[in-house]
Structure formats: C-alpha cells, structure tokens
Design a protein that fits this description.
By secondary structure, the protein is mostly beta strands. Helices cover 5% and strands 42% of the residues.
Length: 292
C-alpha cells in the first residue's frame, strides 16, 4: 500500500542573512486587517468536554489575547435530531458536558447565535464524522543516529476509499510532540477501503536534545490517529503554509486559509473552522533496544 504524505515542514528560523550590496533603508507600512469574528472547535469520538471558541480577531502584532464574545448561544446537533447545548467558560470558550461524544457516520452542525454587538447574528458550519482507522499498534524504529520513526499498524475502514489521517503525538501523557495545528502530520490514502496499514512511517522523532519533538529513553509515546474529512485536511495544510515563512523569501503570499464557518443572517466577516473526527490511539515505550 502506498501512502501519499503531504510534507509538513517545521517552522524555519532565518537568521544571519546579510545583504552586502543593499544598504538603503526600506519603510514598510503594514495596515491593520479588519476585525473579524473567529469561530473554532470540533467534536470527536472521545467522551469529553468539547470546546468551541467564539472570539474577535486581533492585530497580528498585538500583545494581548483575542477578545472573547460572551453571551452567545452555542449548540452542536447531529443529523438524527440530538442537540448539545454548550456552556460558556471563559474568554469566549464554550464547552459541552463531559459525557458528550461524536458518533462515526453522523453529520454534525454547529450553530452560534450572538444577540448584540458588532457580530450580532447567526453563524454555523457542518461536518461529517468519518469512520475511524483501526489502530493495532505503534512501534518505534531507528532511522539514523538522531531520527526515530513511528510506525503504524492497523486497517482502514471499509466505508472510505479516499481516507485522510491526522497524526498527533504526546510523550508521557501530556507533553506535546506535534499536537498543534502548525505541526500536525496529514496523510491521504487513496483507494484505501479496508486496506491494511503495515508499518507505515507516520511521524518522526528526535533522539534526545531539546527539540520540540525530542524523546528520551523511558518516555511513553502516545500517537493519536484521527480520521478526518478532506475539507479539514485542506484547511490544516493551508494554515500550515500560511504560518510558515515564504520560500524563496520574496515569493508571493500563500492563498488565504479557507473557512467553513458561514454567516446565516449577519453581515460581519467571519473566519474559522468546525470539524468532526474519529480517533484511535496507540502507545509505545522508547527503550535502548529501539533501532536497527
């Protein structure tokens, strides 16, 4: 089986570049972008409090946190009539009850109603929750003196021919190795209905050091394998492209990151993303025996 991997670059830190032949000072006027409503969140197959954030965007150079929108009515409903009403927490964060979970094969709709202010109106989005990939195990294998590969074993669901996976990892239960939007690994497995995943490299780690994805002997690694929609996969990849430095340096800007949040009866601009996904996990310990 062939897995087509979208290459996910880490952030690049560019330093020490000198332009010997150019000494003229350049003034660049950066205008503030218009303030928008930003709505983000998800529902997954985990039984937990799922969060939706409703905030207004802030200036790129602002030192303060985005301002949360208080007093909104936020609900998530499925295509069979069940509705979850979220409770406001803090700074525009709204939470489901702790017993809420998503069901594979259902379609979920987010609805946000704001009754006053610049963003008064109704906003929403819809997302299908894909069937999950079965995770049998995750193993570690040394690729070279500093690189450790995470190998995935399992099977794709029969319900999906074109399957998308998001890989996120933690060490020792709580330390993120790549579990942020900028670092998620995204895979597209075409014609994959029911196919076996037989030791495919799904993530890379560094052996020691102080890198964000470094692991050491004795660490317990948890790999989350999330089955996601193509729409969400495209959103993550577009967002990662937007977050990275443009290469070459003077290349044009990337396309604007897409959004699936729409205004139902409001004129204010809105951005963000709501998604539903299924998740399975595998754990593995990193020991001195790991390697070739």
């Amino acid at each position: 089986m062939k897995i087509v991997k979208h290459i996910i670059h880490s952030f690049l830190i560019v330093s020490g570049i000198g332009f010997v032949a150019c000494s003229e000072r350049m003034e660049i006027d950066v205008d503030d972008a218009p303030v928008q409503l930003a709505v983000y969140g998800n529902i997954t197959t985990d039984t937990m409090q799922h969060a939706i954030t409703v905030q207004q965007t802030s200036n790129f150079f602002a030192a303060s946190q985005p301002v949360g929108i208080s007093g909104a009515t936020v609900t998530i409903s499925d295509n069979e009539g069940a509705t979850f009403t979220l409770t406001e927490s803090q700074n525009g964060e709204y939470l489901t009850d702790a017993a809420v979970f998503g069901v594979e094969g259902k379609t979920y709709t987010l609805k946000v109603v704001i009754v006053s202010g610049d963003f008064a109106g109704e906003y929403g989005a819809t997302s299908y929750l894909p069937y999950s990939a079965q995770v049998d195990s995750v193993t570690l294998q040394r690729a070279d003196t500093r690189t450790i590969n995470g190998l995935l074993y399992g099977r794709l669901p029969a319900e999906s021919d074109n399957h998308y996976l998001k890989i996120a990892a933690y060490k020792n239960d709580h330390v993120s190795l790549n579990a942020t939007l900028a670092k998620f690994n995204i895979f597209n497995i075409e014609n994959g209905s029911g196919k076996t995943i037989d030791g495919e490299v799904c993530i890379n780690f560094r052996d020691g050091g102080d890198n964000a994805n470094s692991i050491e002997q004795g660490d317990i690694i948890t790999v989350h394998v999330c089955s996601i929609t193509k729409e969400y996969a495209d959103y993550v990849l577009n967002a990662q492209e937007e977050l990275q430095w443009s290469m070459p340096i003077f290349s044009g800007p990337p396309a604007n990151v897409q959004t699936n949040i729409s205004a139902k009866n409001a004129s204010a601009p809105v951005c963000g993303f709501f998604t539903a996904y299924s998740k399975q996990s595998g754990k593995v310990g990193f020991s001195a025996m790991t390697g070739k």
